[in-house]
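User: Here's a structure from my thesis project, written as structure tokens. My advisor, Dr. K., wants to see whether a designed sequence matches the one we expressed. Can you design one independently, without my sequence as a hint?
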């Protein structure tokens, strides 16, 4: 069972990084201790109906769960079956040349 690494949001940080730099540094140190030094902070602006909001999230990679793995394998199997059916349909229509 070969599981993939999944890039995902680890925590929402909407108001976590506001305030004095010493407090922000403490928060970042705690995040590094919890999630490791390779986690990243992503900031994005989302627009909706004329207003905008800022989204701040801690992102990182993790191994996919058993459920995600089984879902991915089922999707791959279905894709393969669809490709095989399309191949057989086109082969019947145009021959094997």
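Assistant: Designed independently from the structure alone:
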């Amino acid at each position: 069972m070969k599981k993939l690494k999944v890039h995902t949001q680890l925590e929402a940080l909407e108001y976590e990084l506001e305030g004095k730099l010493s407090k922000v540094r403490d928060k970042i140190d705690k995040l590094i201790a919890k999630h490791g030094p390779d986690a990243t902070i992503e900031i994005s602006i989302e627009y909706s109906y004329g207003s905008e909001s800022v989204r701040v999230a801690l992102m990182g990679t993790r191994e996919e769960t058993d459920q995600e793995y089984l879902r991915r394998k089922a999707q791959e199997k279905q894709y393969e079956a669809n490709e095989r059916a399309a191949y057989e349909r086109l082969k019947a229509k145009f021959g094997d040349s």
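When you compare it with your expressed construct, this may help: Strands lie at 5-12, 40-48, 51-63.
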